[in-house]
Write a structure and sequence with these properties.
The protein is an alpha/beta fold. The protein has eight helices and eleven strands.
Length: about 220
């Protein structure tokens, strides 16, 4: 799952990026509002983490630009602005959540999961198609009786497939869910991850559509 982080504080940004990578997110990090707007126009994201005090373009103006463009993209504001008027304005402009700095990473991750669930098909925290299930909070996957804890990148790949059951995702699609801008894409990484997931859960957990990509079945 790919996330855009718009944060100008180097220390906070580096800590959040590292935590998100550990939690199996692919992260692109920008440090001013203009770059944040450009990124949302040129890349596909599942979520934006948006600081308000950004240089070039203020975070609220970034949010307004995203919503005026009718980009249906979940946005969580991360800011030290704790006044009630700021929180109300941010939510009224279309933010999905508002988290005050300093915050605990575990709370941020839980709020991200909650926002993503609301954008999906239901309130259940478990992704699944009936036989194949994945718990984003623990990275535990199960398939017809087999259970396993997945690595961060195994989780990211399987999550991408389960968010679109029945859809065929290409290698490039899956790499976009696994790697951020500054990460080197390893040769045959997708094939290797699929191999390791199948080894843990069974060969039928992920289907290969020869010459096109991979998919998981619909419910």
């Amino acid at each position: 799952m790919r996330v855009l982080l718009a944060e100008d504080d180097k220390m906070i940004g580096a800590a959040v990026v590292e935590a998100l990578k550990d939690a199996a997110y692919a992260v692109d990090w920008v440090r001013d509002g203009g770059l944040a707007i450009e990124a949302t126009r040129s890349e596909s994201y599942h979520l934006v983490l948006l600081d308000l005090g950004l240089p070039a373009v203020d975070g609220l103006d970034v949010l307004k630009t995203i919503r005026v463009a009718n980009i249906k993209l979940p946005v969580i504001i991360l800011t030290a602005r704790d006044a009630l008027d700021d929180r109300v304005r941010g939510l009224d402009l279309g933010a999905d959540d508002y988290l005050i700095k300093p915050f605990e990473i575990q709370e941020l991750l839980a709020r991200m999961r909650a926002v993503i669930r609301r954008e999906g098909s239901g309130a259940s925290p478990i992704l699944g198609n009936g036989r194949l299930q994945l718990d984003p909070a623990t990275r535990e996957a199960s398939f017809v009786g087999e259970r396993a804890i997945l690595s961060a990148r195994e989780f990211a790949l399987l999550q991408a497939l389960l968010l679109r059951p029945g859809a065929i995702l290409s290698r490039a699609d899956l790499e976009g869910h696994i790697y951020g801008w500054n990460e080197e894409v390893e040769s045959n990484a997708v094939e290797f991850l699929i191999h390791t997931i199948r080894k843990k859960l069974g060969a039928l957990a992920i289907r290969n559509v020869r010459g096109v990509g991979w998919m998981v079945d619909r419910a």
